Give the backbone structure.
Amino acid sequence: MNTPARILVVDDVEKNVRLLADILKFKGYDVVTAADGTGALERVGAAQPDLVLLDVMMPDLNGYDVCRKIREEPRTATLPVVMVTALDPTQERIKGLEAGADDFLTKPINQAELLARVRSLLRVKDLHDQLGALNQTLEQRVRDQVSELERLSRLKRFFSPQLADAIVHGGADDPLKTHRREITVVFLDLRGFTAFAETAEPEEVMGVLREYHAAMGQLVLEHEGTLERFTGDGMMVFFNDPVLVPNPAERAIRMACAMRERVDDLRRRWLKQGFDLALGVGIAQGYATIGAIGFEGRWDYGAIGTVTNLSARLCGEAKGGQVLVSSRVANAVEEIVDVEEVGALTLKGLLKPVPAFNVLRLKS
């Protein structure tokens, strides 16, 4: 059942108050009363009425002053106020409107007119309240959407758009929390880049990097890899985080092979310009600690562990056009690629020699 509207009746003549209160109560309204302007303001704050019937002539604060004070308060600025007077209606109406009144009734009160004006103003108030609630809801939705877009934009720095969207909408755990997971790490950079950067013009270096980053970035997105970082010509990408996938090593290998083919295409044009550059790739699989790294205002998404070092060292050993993988990766993808054994490599930072394999091609 709906709560009846509450109406505040304000008049310093008790007989007038009883008359208005009886009429309104008979129609089902909840009525509260005040006998002067000061009491009216107190009742507005305490009773929170839906409409005020306000006498003009009162001993302390007159109706106009009360109305002005009601309008000054943000909480009651839109509260419907009907001025009631026995004075000249034309002059008092102007004063009432200037004070902020919504409507005007002349004494003696016509019961039908009173109820009609009350119903009309209460309908307006109800619509205004609904609109206010709707605006509040819309404002909250906008705030939520802005926050979501900001988070999505931040996540897209590291993940594919599809994956970032899944994270924001609850399809994946929050990856920025520190966690431990088995991942496949791909490290790649360009052979000959240091010498090229030392001898080429800065504009030429930036042009090559733009082509290279655009091509590699597209393939990272296509294979739904997570870009951990890129520094100059070097990139680190991993698979199986933040969303688990059943075939991280296969995704990594397919991406690396596609990258090698794409760089071969770019290399033909680079050679015509006198730039001798080729791609080297290292891939390893193992456990890493993953999460947000940095400080307030500058966070990066990082993976820490031996697997990242192994991938980087294999990349460092790879000749132009080689994709060197650890034995663990080679075993995981033996059904889809042809490999050749390179032998055990002594890698910086690793205690024991590491067996390595060169990926020749994807099997038909």
Q: What stands out?
A: The two ends are 73 Å apart (CA to CA). The mean pLDDT is 88.
